[in-house]
Design goal:
The protein has 354 residues and is an alpha/beta fold. The chain is built from ten helices and eleven strands.
Length: 354
């Protein structure tokens, strides 16, 4: 059995969680998330400096609460996992430095975690029998990427967006038409009230056999539609726009997912990331996988957003491989930095706590 503390602070959620591994099955013992949605709602988006300060204020409290709710002490932990990349650099530094201090002071092994990989690993918390290899699709505010994950839990990116992410595209148009922040969640609900064929919009799926998407075009088309209606003094049916916009984005993602499944031959699809909570996307991929006779593994909606439990789940695989970090661990805003500073090659998992 192993107990891991997972810490997440890559954007606007401060989270700590305790995950238990027993016989290869990962179970969430606690998962505390301090959200900053109300703080950033005033600005219509995340303000990095404000986010960083909020993490400083919350990190000690959420960590203590996670340990207390799990019924464990620091001395019981086998490892501490922390998101070190990618994300907002100031926000990441709060979590990384706190985790380093906690690990060093208590002689607990430290594991560096890639935020995107952590989203994928959230699926293991809801599907104990999930095994690689599989195709993973991460859809969030900053990413729309496809990964082939092999038996060794190695991630190979095989396609994705050329520019903006799907989550950003949803949030942007939601904000422009006056929906409450975050716009993507409200747009998801409003889309059920409109006609998905009412407004002609371009597809984000790039033409051809490449697993590639581009969301800048559909965003511009939606903005032009809104500006044109305003100049002509015409009322805009927000529900029709939400439905048409959502349908085109979901259709494009499903199309490229179908292509990725065909090219890789993989029989399991993992959907992850904040936009994995989008009900239209979940339904479309359920239909696709049923048609292809492919297994679909999705985290619960509660585990789609940023959280410490997914970090602990990803950290378990690093812990199992003996890939630890030292006090030189640094944060990086990049998806794939040139080596994560302070991360060692596989070594013994044992640290003398005396």
């Amino acid at each position: 059995m192993a107990l891991l503390l997972g810490m997440e602070s890559s954007c606007d959620e401060t989270s700590a969680a305790v995950v238990e591994e027993k016989n290869g099955i990962l179970t969430v013992r606690s998962n505390i998330v301090a959200s900053q949605i109300e703080t950033h709602r005033l600005y219509g988006g995340v303000v990095p400096e404000i986010a960083s300060r909020a993490h400083v204020e919350a990190v000690s409290k959420v960590t203590a609460e996670a340990l207390e709710n799990a019924g464990v002490a620091l001395a019981d932990l086998d490892a501490i996992a922390v998101t070190s990349h990618p994300g907002l650099i100031g926000a990441l530094l709060v979590g990384v430095n706190f985790a380093k201090s906690l690990a060093y002071a208590n002689k607990i092994p430290l594991v560096s975690v890639n935020h995107i990989h952590a989203h994928i690993c959230a699926a293991f918390l809801c599907h104990p029998d999930l095994k690689p290899p599989f195709l993973a699709l991460v859809v969030s505010g900053g990413h729309t990427s496809f990964y082939a994950v092999n038996e060794k839990m190695e991630y190979r990116e095989i396609g994705g967006t050329r520019d903006d992410a799907a989550g950003e595209a949803f949030d942007k148009i939601g904000r422009v038409i006056g929906l409450p922040y975050p716009g993507g969640a409200a747009l998801d609900k409003l889309a059920y009230e409109g006609n998905p064929k009412a407004i002609l919009l371009p597809s984000p799926a790039l033409v051809g056999e490449e697993i590639a998407l581009s969301f800048s075009g559909i965003k511009t088309a939606a903005l032009n539609y809104l500006n044109g209606a305003e100049q002509k003094g015409l009322a805009v049916n927000r529900a029709d726009l939400a439905a048409s916009y959502t349908a085109k984005i979901v259709e494009a993602i499903a199309k490229k997912t179908d292509l990725a499944l065909g090219q890789t031959g993989l029989k399991t699809l993992v959907l992850a990331g904040g936009v994995a909570a989008n009900s239209h996307l979940r339904r479309a991929l359920e239909a696709l996988c049923q048609k292809r006779k492919v297994r679909l593994a999705m985290p619960s909606v509660a585990l789609c957003g940023d959280n410490g439990a997914m970090v602990a789940a990803a950290g378990y695989f690093g812990f199992r491989a003996g890939c630890f970090s030292d006090v030189a661990l640094n944060a990086s805003a990049l998806d794939y930095p040139e080596g994560v500073i302070g991360t060692s090659k596989p070594q013994s998992q044992k640290i003398d706590k005396k």
